[in-house]
Amino acid sequence: MMSGSLSALGTASRTARTAKLDRVLPATPDEVWRAWTEPDRLPHWFGPVLKGIPGPDVEYVLEGRGEHGDTIVCRVLAWEPAIRLRVTWRYTGEAESELRLDLSPTDDGGTRLLLEHVGFGPEADPVDYAAGWHMYTDNLEAHLAGTPGLADSDARWMELMPVYAASAD
Q: Which positions fall inside the Activator of Hsp90 ATPase homologue 1/2-like C-terminal domain (predicted)?
């Protein structure tokens, strides 16, 4: 079961633009938490940690997708293992935004992931982020299930872009 949505796009306040994703994953909240926070697991579905180790009140740096050494600087705002993670998100060339993750167990032993990425500056595209988070959580789901992730994540992202763009109109 997966659904994604965008909200507050096109409002007068560009900082109110938000990308949201609601997804059920085939693993316990503890397993999902570890996939989001352990440096040896992040490269399997997102990308490597270049500096620091995710943890309470710390800053760490992730490798971005760009071809020019892009990075993502994250500062942990809330660290509640297997329940809630909040980080500032500063991608190369973009203003700081905030990534919010909430995890809750499902009746079948899985995890409901509510992802909300808020506060985009004018240089960031929430549609791009929504499609990207959908693509990354496809990879996360495969990682949690012990299967290979997407062979071509760029193709998956391009497939999702028009879907999210249409929902933002």
A: 27-144
